[in-house]
Specification:
InterPro entries: DegT/StrS_aminotransferase, PyrdxlP-dep_Trfase, PyrdxlP-dep_Trfase_major, PyrdxlP-dep_Trfase_small. One of its GO terms (molecular function) is pyridoxal phosphate binding. Pfam families: DegT_DnrJ_EryC1. Belongs to the DegT/DnrJ/EryC1 family. The chain is an alpha/beta fold. It has helices spanning about 25-40, 50-60, 70-85, 105, 125-130, 150-160, 215-225, 245-255, 260-280, 310-320, 340-345, 370-380, 390-410; strands at about 65-70, 90-95, 110-115, 135-145, 165-170, 175-180, 180, 190-195, 205-210, 285, 295, 300-305, 330, 380-385. It is globular and about 70 Å long.
């Protein structure tokens, strides 16, 4: 079968979340920025916008505390610092994640221990986490990949039974819910990112949330160099960084927050149209979402049976790219433990620290331990999505996928 696809469809330009075509940034953000600049106060320790963001986000999440920081990696680092692992302690996490979710573990002198994932949802499960627990487990970090909630009820039951705190990485999951509770409010700490391509954006930015006053206090301090602002006798209480968000970023975030509900509604509506238009195609599976979950679709993912298509998943991706649909087969391409920093333990100078403290089992990345991870990455095709998609854009994506899949289908 020929693979040189000649698209019968007239090409259209899809909005991109990397520029103004796919990001709703405008007058509201400009007004807030002007107000911040005119105030002359651009530090969050004296200004009002970051404090307002924190109050509004805590209310949106239904949690006691929310603190803004400089980026999503800072949010995760802040969460881990609040847990305060001893050197060599272990943090269970997923190998299908951004490196920004893993390097904070190493910077806190802990060992990332990878659990396998469900190949249909790409998320950790209570069953896979339990297999990775050891006496050195200090925390569990659960990523709600692509906006699809992990099964937090089961995970929290396991974690509580072992007295292990849970950090939720919600960078891709603003507004996602399970049993009516937003992700980020299930665990001990929730972490969010305002990076360029997230549901709402400030270019870079992060937020941490918690209902635990002790963890919240420690996170607030860690963001502020552990200086006790407002204390009777403030001091720098422990080793910490300056991860504060500035008022300019906070101003944009406050304006974006007013649009978050609408953005989430648009994404879920467009995703429902994609699912309806693609669910009958042989060799392709639409996202697997639990009945009690609300998926908020940072991206829209198809599961591809590569054996069914000429050229496999790459052949299908090539056909879509020829139609200017910038899809990503295999997402991050390889599990995180195959990246040099972890594989070769490239950390602080030539010390290999903290890997020098690791149990051999904790750094055993044998392929047979991660069947779900490898299956998930081999079969996932990530499609772009953002708040500026219209019905025309969605129908173009559907028609393009149907056309390419039909031409390449081997049966």
């Amino acid at each position: 079968m020929a693979t040189d696809l000649k698209a019968p469809l007239e090409k259209i330009q899809l909005p991109s979340d990397q520029d103004a075509t796919g990001r709703e940034l405008g007058d509201d953000e400009m007004v807030a920025l002007a107000e911040a600049i005119e105030s002359g106060t651009l530090t969050s320790t004296k200004g009002k916008f970051v404090k307002r963001l924190e109050e509004e986000f805590a209310a949106y999440m239904g949690v006691e505390s929310a603190y803004a920081c400089s980026h999503g990696t800072a949010a995760l680092h802040t969460a881990l610092a609040a847990i305060d692992p001893e050197p060599g302690d272990e943090v269970i996490t997923t190998a299908i994640t951004d490196m920004g979710a893993l390097t904070p573990i190493l910077y806190q002198s802990a060992i990332p221990v990878f659990a396998d994932v469900d190949p249909l949802t790409y998320n950790l499960t209570a069953e896979t986490i339990e297999k990775a627990i050891s006496p050195k487990t200090k925390a569990i970090m659960v990523t709600h990949l692509f906006g699809n909630p992990a099964r937090m009820g089961e995970i929290m039951e396991l974690a509580r039974s072992r007295n292990i705190p849970v950090i939720e990485d919600c960078a891709q999951a603003f507004g996602a819910e399970l049993d009516g509770v937003k992700v980020g409010a299930w665990g001990d700490i929730g972490c969010f990112s305002l990076q360029q391509g997230k549901h709402i954006t400030t270019g870079e930015g992060g937020i941490v949330t918690s209902n635990d006053p002790d963890l919240a206090r420690r996170m607030y301090l860690f963001i502020n160099k552990a200086w006790g602002y407002g204390d009777a006798k403030p001091d720098h209480y422990f080793l910490a960084l300056n991860y504060r968000m500035n008022e300019l970023t906070g101003a944009v975030a406050v304006a974006q927050m007013q649009k978050l509900g609408d953005f989430v509604e648009r994404r879920t509506r467009m995703a429902a149209q994609l699912t309806a238009g693609l669910s009958d195609l042989p060799g392709l599976s639409t996202p697997a979402v639990d009945a009690n979950a609300k998926h908020t679709y940072w991206k829209y993912c198809l599961r591809v049976d590569g054996d069914k298509f000429e050229g496999g998943i790459d052949g299908l991706a090539k056909g879509l790219r020829e139609r200017d649909i910038l899809c990503a087969p295999r997402y991050i391409q390889k599990p995180a433990f195959e990246c040099q920093v972890i594989r070769d333990q490239r950390t602080f100078g030539n010390s290999r620290f903290p890997f020098t403290l690791a149990r051999p089992e904790a750094v055993d990345y044998s392929r047979d331990k991660f069947p779900g991870t490898y299956e998930a990455l081999a079969s996932v095709l990530v499609l772009p999505l953002n708040e500026k998609y219209t019905d025309q854009h969605v129908n173009y994506v559907i028609d393009s996928i149907r056309d390419a899949a039909t031409q390449l289908f081997k049966g």
